C-alpha cells in the first residue's frame, strides 16, 4: 500500500526476518525443508484418495458436458442422451472387468460381504410393524428369508446405487438444459455436503458439559444472574470434560463443510429467473447424489463396487433402449457418445480406487462432492463457452480451498483404521491385502480339532473274561493296600496278600 508521497513503505523488520528464515531454511538446509514437507504430506491421510475422487468427478462432469449441447439443441431428449452414453460405457466397463480381473480385488456377486446390521434391523422392524396386515407380513417374511441367503445379499446392496445412478444421470440431462451448468451442479452438491455435516455432527454427539445453575425466570433475569464467580466455577467443573471432548480434527470436519455450502450457494444465480421444474430436478439430483455416495461406499465395503456400477449401466441401457429407436444417428452423436462413455468408465474406476483400495470415508466423499460445481463451471467455460461471474469465481475458490484443507487437516490414522476394518478384504478370514493380518485370525475348525485331540481316549472293556478277571483282582488289591496304608505303615508283604 502506498503512502502520501506515492512510495511503497518497506516491510517491517520482523516480517523480513521470518521471510529470510524461511528462505534460508530452503537454501541452506534443503534436506530439512524436504523432510518437513514430507512430514506435512504424511499427515494428510486422505490427500491421495481425495485426488483420485477429484479425478472421478472431473470425468463424470466432463462426460455430462459432452452430451449437453445435443440436449440443449433438442437433437436428443434427456433419456436418449443418457442411454447413448450407456451404449458405449457398458461394453467398455465389461471388457475392463474381464481384462483387469487379476488386479481388481473384487468378489463375485454371490460371494459379496456387505455390512447388513442396519439393514437387518430395518427389515425386522418392518416385519414387526406389519403383523396386523397378514398379506404384507407374509410377503415381507418370505422376502426376508430369501434376502438372508448368502448368494442374495448383494441385491439390496446394489439396488440403491442403481436407482440413484440412473436417476442422477436422467435429472442431470434435464436440469443442465434449463439452468447454468455450474448452478445446477451447485444445488446437487448440497446433498453430499449435508451428509458430511450430519456424519461429523454424529461424531461430536454427547457433549459432556454441565450447564450453568441459572435461576428460573425470563431471559433477562438469567443473564443478570451470571457473574464472574459462576463462570469460573463452571469452567473448573467442565475443564476436564472439555479437554477430553475437544478434538481439532473433529471440529474442522464439522466447520469446513459449512464453507463448501457457502461456496455452493454463491454459485446459484440469485435474482435471475430460475425454472421451477429444473430447480426441483436439481434438488432431486442432490438426493440421488447423497444416496450414491452412501451406496457406493457400501458396495466398496462388500467388494462389488465396479460390478455394481456395471450392473447399473446395464439396467440404464435396458430401461432407455426403446428411446433409441427414434434417434437420428450422426457422426456427432456417435463421437460424443463414445467420448462420454469413456469418461463415464474412467470416473467409475477412479471412484473405485478412492473408495476401495484408498479407503476414502463417506464423510470425505460427501464433502468432496462439492467440487462438482467447481469442475462444472470450468467445464462449462472450456467446452460450452459459458461466462463466469464474480460470485461464481468466489464460490469456486472457496470450495477448492475447503477441499484442500479438509483433505490435509481432517484425516486421522484411527479413521483410516476404522475404514479398513469395514473393507471386505480386511474382514476376510484369510489375510489383509498387504499380506499381514491386522489382528489374529481364528479358525473355528482348527479349534474344534484341537479340542478333540486334547480329550482323553475312552477305555475299552476287555472282551476276554480272563483279562477282565485279572483287572478285577488288581483293582481289589489296590483298595486293600490303600486301606492298610491309611491305618499305618504298610507292611512289606502287603502286596503278596
TrEMBL record:
Basic residues bias spans: 457-470, 487-497
Residue span of region Disordered: 420-497
Transmembrane feature ranges: 36-55, 75-100, 154-175, 181-204, 251-270, 276-296, 308-327, 333-353, 365-384, 390-412
Compositional bias per record (Basic and acidic residues), positions renumbered to this chain: 471-480
Record keywords: Membrane, Transmembrane, Transmembrane helix
Name this polypeptide is given: Integral membrane protein
Species of the source: Actinoallomurus liliacearum
Amino acid at each position: 500500500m502506498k503512502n502520501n508521497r506515492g512510495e511503497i513503505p518497506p516491510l517491517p523488520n520482523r516480517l523480513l526476518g521470518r521471510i529470510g528464515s524461511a528462505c534460508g531454511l530452503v537454501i541452506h538446509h534443503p534436506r530439512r525443508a524436504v523432510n518437513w514437507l514430507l512430514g506435512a504430506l504424511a499427515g494428510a491421510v486422505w490427500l491421495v484418495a481425495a485426488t483420485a475422487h477429484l479425478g472421478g468427478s472431473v470425468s463424470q462432469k466432463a462426460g455430462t458436458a459432452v452430451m449437453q449441447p445435443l440436449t440443449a439443441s433438442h437433437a436428443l431428449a434427456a433419456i436418449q442422451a443418457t442411454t447413448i452414453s450407456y451404449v458405449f460405457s457398458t461394453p467398455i466397463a465389461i471388457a475392463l472387468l474381464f481384462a483387469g480381473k487379476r488386479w481388481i480385488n473384487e468378489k463375485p456377486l454371490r460371494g459379496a460381504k456387505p455390512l447388513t446390521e442396519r439393514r437387518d434391523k430395518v427389515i425386522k422392524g418392518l416385519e414387526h410393524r406389519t403383523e396386523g396386515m397378514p398379506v404384507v407380513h407374509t410377503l415381507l417374511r418370505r422376502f426376508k428369508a430369501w434376502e438372508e441367503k448368502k448368494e442374495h445379499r448383494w441385491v439390496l446392496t446394489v439396488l440403491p446405487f442403481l436407482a440413484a445412478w440412473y436417476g442422477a444421470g436422467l435429472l442431470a440431462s434435464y436440469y443442465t438444459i434449463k439452468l447454468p451448468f455450474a448452478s445446477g451442479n451447485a444445488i446437487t452438491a448440497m446433498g453430499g455436503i449435508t451428509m458430511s455435516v450430519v456424519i461429523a455432527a454424529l461424531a461430536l454427539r454427547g457433549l459432556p458439559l454441565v450447564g450453568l445453575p441459572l435461576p428460573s425466570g425470563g431471559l433477562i433475569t438469567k443473564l443478570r444472574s451470571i457473574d464472574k464467580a459462576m463462570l469460573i466455577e463452571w469452567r473448573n467443573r467442565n475443564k476436564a470434560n472439555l479437554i477430553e471432548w475437544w478434538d481439532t480434527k473433529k471440529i474442522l470436519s464439522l466447520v469446513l463443510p459449512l464453507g463448501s455450502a457457502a461456496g455452493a450457494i454463491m454459485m446459484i444465480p440469485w435474482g435471475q429467473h430460475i425454472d421451477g421444474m429444473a430447480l426441483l430436478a436439481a434438488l432431486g439430483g442432490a438426493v440421488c447424489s447423497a444416496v450414491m455416495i452412501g451406496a457406493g461406499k457400501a458396495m466398496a465395503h462388500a467388494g462389488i463396487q465396479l460390478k455394481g456400477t456395471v450392473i447399473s449401466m446395464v439396467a440404464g441401457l435396458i430401461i432407455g433402449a426403446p428411446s433409441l429407436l427414434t434417434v437420428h444417428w450422426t457422426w456427432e452423436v456417435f463421437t460424443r457418445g463414445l467420448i462420454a462413455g469413456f469418461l463415464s468408465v474412467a470416473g467409475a474406476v477412479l471412484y473405485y480406487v478412492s473408495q476401495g483400495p484408498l479407503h476414502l470415508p463417506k464423510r470425505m466423499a460427501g464433502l468432496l462432492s462439492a467440487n462438482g460445481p467447481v469442475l462444472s463451471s470450468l467445464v462449462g467455460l472450456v467446452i460450452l463457452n459459458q461466462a463466469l461471474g464474480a460470485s461464481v469465481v468466489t464460490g469456486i475458490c472457496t470450495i477448492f480451498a475447503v477441499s484442500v484443507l479438509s483433505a490435509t487437516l481432517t484425516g486421522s490414522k484411527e479413521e483410516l483404521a476404522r475404514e479398513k476394518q469395514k473393507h471386505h478384504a480386511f474382514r476376510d478370514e484369510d489375510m489383509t491385502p498387504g499380506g499381514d493380518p491386522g489382528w489374529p485370525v481364528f479358525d473355528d475348525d482348527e479349534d474344534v480339532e484341537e479340542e478333540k485331540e486334547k480329550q482323553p481316549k475312552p477305555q475299552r472293556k476287555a472282551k476276554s473274561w480272563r483279562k477282565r478277571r485279572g483287572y478285577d483282582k488288581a483293582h481289589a488289591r489296590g483298595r486293600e493296600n490303600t486301606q492298610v496304608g491309611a491305618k499305618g505303615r504298610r507292611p512289606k508283604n502287603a502286596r503278596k496278600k
